[in-house]
């Protein structure tokens, strides 16, 4: 042990596959490395950004597309023909339409935030609040989508077959289920991000 | 640096609130400590078991109780009176009944596994498979429950009010929603456990 009280000498065996530089930096940093999501734009370039960020953006874009198709396919037949059997006649289909619009708005916000993050980190809200919010809202949107898909099935069985509304409801429900699956993957990703933040 | 190639001397500043012993043990153990869930019964006593384990068991017991009440409240009126308006006449209520029975069976298995774990660790399946399985099946049961609850609401509105089946369906659906909320918390816990296992 040296006399200087500020400097501590530690004797340890060099570990396999760990260079002295790494071991030294480990000794200086006893706490685990921070989450790969909590990096700053200043220190990292475009290419070193984790691919999970882009995967997330891609998934969000799919959700945006699917929920838009799901909502528009319900709305189009009721606009084309002024028949009384538009989707507004069925409260269950109205609920589905509302859920798809909500999913669309939420995903638009998430995409906007994701793009803002690439342009300027932490432009809208802090990372921690964003991680918590994403996880909770992803879960909520997922549950709303599965609920809407389930509610629509008995209605589809009630609607007269081969009518434009019947086709629209089937397309909408299929898209709704696909959106639910993609949102499910988004929830897993945001849950993983949140867990990393809590544990690290 | 000493001459002995097996021993590496590192000079570093002692950190605040970290004793030399801790720093030394950190240098010897560069990887984070293992998950608190991966302990063995041999090394830990009853009192040192993490409280999350008991919370989980308590939640599972609630799910068992609620799903049982939910299923039985649907089944009782149809047994009491041989009226045609039993829940079997409505496919949506049959679906709810099936989901509650599935939730009951799954939770019975989870409770059995939890009690087996207390008696003899790893009696049934390995911890890793159990964590993955619990997370996936919790999610699945949660989605099935919210789907069943949603599907039952339009049917409850169709059923004649103040009949035994109407009351039963309302009790069942309320319990189903409560079960969903508790399963939601179970999913969060099992997701947290799984994340700890993946990250650590």
TrEMBL record, chains A, B:
It comes from the Eukaryota. This is Uncharacterized protein. The lineage of its organism: Eukaryota, Viridiplantae, Streptophyta, Embryophyta, Tracheophyta.
